[in-house]
Amino acid sequence: MSGPSSSPHVMQSGATSGVNIKLHPLAILNISDVYTRAQCTSTGSEVPKLIGALLGTESNREIAIVNSFELIYHPSVMSGEDVDMSDSGSSGGKYVLNTDFLETRKDQFKQVFPTLDVIGWYSVGKEPSSDDISLHAQFASSVETPIFLLFDPDPASGTQALPLKIYESATVTDTTGEISGEGKFVELEYGIETGEAERIAVDGVAKGGAGEEDTAVAHLTTQRNAIKMLYDRIEILLKYVTGVVNKSAKPDYSILRRISSLVATLPTMDAGEFREELITEYSDVQISSYLTTLTKQLNVLSEYAEKHSLVYGQKEDEFMGGPSMGLRGGRQMNFDMGGGRRRR
């Protein structure tokens, strides 16, 4: 529980129902998301009043706040003065809850999450106000003994606690036996409870600010470090076993038994299907390698053929009667191949 509240609508001490409240991160994330969207889409300087319903389970004195959804309201002509919380139908605040929308959404969520019920409501602000007192009284007409969660969107810097408080209607009996403290809240203690899926989601949200490239690099770096650590440790074991075999290291049978049990836990790969798949993969890799080598050799051969044609093709033309041999000045040159005299 946080420090004492300065709001006149919160009792500093009082009798509570003694419930044990467990708050799940999903409800907090939903409320934070609602406020963020309202802040981004609001045209004025102030964010409008935000309210919603809390979904969860209640068993004896155990309450679990699991989820939440938004609600709508209508403005009231009332000035917003305090009301008697024992009157569930009062609406002395500036806002009137749309109960039809509440019932519709409750039925829709009931179809998807049959184990969850509406156990209370939430709002956004620093301290409870008279409008919250009025809205709580309106909720009491639809939900029996609702709880109230107040989310602070702008907590003080350096605060370690979560920026939220949970209240219930104050019920204090004075010395005369009459109930006092009506129209006020009393703060309740709560704890955080997370499931495996929620832990993964919260971790993903916490790391969601980086770009895709940074995320990929971080993921690959983590994998590389893990593989390197595994490789180093396997190398140490291999050196030790090699030393024992070579009788250069003193055998420790306890360590050897642990190494043997570790090796025994590895899956065996002698199945026929595995060998067939391995041979297929090996053949595919070899064929790809051969095709790559063949393509390179064909490229080299093509370049060699072009160079050969460029060099030896010109000499062949000259030998067959090119411009430098056979004809000179338009006259035919005759050669005596038998050693006789040349005829003119």
From TrEMBL:
Keywords: Cytoplasm, Nucleus, Signalosome. GO terms for biological process: protein deneddylation. Belongs to the peptidase M67A family. CSN6 subfamily. GO terms for cellular component: COP9 signalosome; cytoplasm. Pfam families: JAB (PF01398), MitMem_reg (PF13012). One of its GO terms (molecular function) is metallopeptidase activity. It is found in: Cytoplasm; Nucleus. Component of the COP9 signalosome complex (CSN), a complex involved in various cellular and developmental processes. Its main location: cytoplasm. InterPro entries: EIF3F/CSN6-like_C, JAMM/MPN+_dom, MPN, MPN_CSN6. This is COP9 signalosome complex subunit 6. Residues 21-173 form the MPN domain.
